[in-house]
Amino acid sequence: MRDTLGLEGIAGVVVVFLAITVVTLRDPVIGGGLMLLVAGLALIAKGVAASTMRAFGLK
Questions:
Q1: One-character DSSP codes across the chain
Q2: What is the rounded CA–CA span in Å between residue 59 and residue 52?
Q3: What are the TM regions of this chain, as residue ranges (predicted)?
Q4: d(CA 14, CA 7)
Q5: CB 20 within 8 A of CB 31
Q6: What is the model's pTM?
Q7: pLDDT tens digits, 7-33
Q8: Would the CA dihedral through 21, 24, 30, 33 be positive or negative?
């Protein structure tokens, strides 16, 4: 994972999860909504990356 994301990427993921944890401790419903939002954004990013790779003939 370190080769793919790098140290900055791993630190970013940790910060995002810590922020969601803090919000979830305060209000679980909003924390759940944030987790769904992050999961949706990750799926969108994966789809865009796959589409771009296919456009360049890499996949």
A1: -HHHHHHHHHHHHHHHHHHHHHHHHH-HHHHHHHHHHHHHHHHHHHHHHHHHHHHTT--
A2: 9
A3: 5-23, 29-49
A4: 11
A5: yes
A6: 0.76
A7: 898 898 899 999 999 999 999 999 999
A8: positive
